[in-house]
Every structure is written in structure tokens, then in C-alpha cells.
Automatic annotation (TrEMBL):
Keywords recorded for this protein, A-Z: RNA-binding
Pfam families found in the cross-reference section: dsrm (PF00035)
Protein name as annotated: Blanks
Keyword RNA-binding: yes
Tagged with keyword Transcription regulation: no
Domain DRBM, chain residue ranges per copy: 12-78
One example GO MF annotation: RNA binding
InterPro entries referenced in this protein's UniProt entry, alphabetically: dsRBD_dom (IPR014720)
GO BP terms, alphabetized: regulation of gene expression
Amino acid sequence: KKPAKQLPPNSEMMNPVMLLNQMRPGTTYEDVAKEGNPPAIVFTVKTICEGEEFFGKGNNKKVARKNCAYAACSKLFDIKYPE
């Protein structure tokens, strides 16, 4: 698939994982680390996009992947996400 040429409207309101997959099809995430003991486990996920590595941490893999995509979208597309 070809990458999208321009960001969709209201891209800051989209789920960052969905946006990154739309803008950079074929993006994959790799589970890098799992720290701590249950129930306080912290997962770390990594993706490589446009030659740069982005990391995200979270209390489950889904949150870690979302935080990783937040980092990538913020840097690559200059998106300012609401707090």
C-alpha cells in the first residue's frame, strides 16, 4: 500500500495507531520489554518509521502501542494531541 499524502481532517482526534497505519501502511510494533511484577507490569513497545525508532510504555500492550504511535505521530506529522 502507498502512504497517504495528507493528514485526514481532525487527525488529532483519531486513534494514533489507526492514523499511523493509515499514513504509513505496514507499520509494525515490536514488544521490547516487560518490567515489574503483577499487577504492576509495564510493557515497552517499539516501532520504526521513516528510519526513526519510537517507543511507548503502558500497563498493557495496547496502551504501550498507543503511546508508541502517539510519539511517532507527534514527531512525524507534527500533531498536537489534546492532554
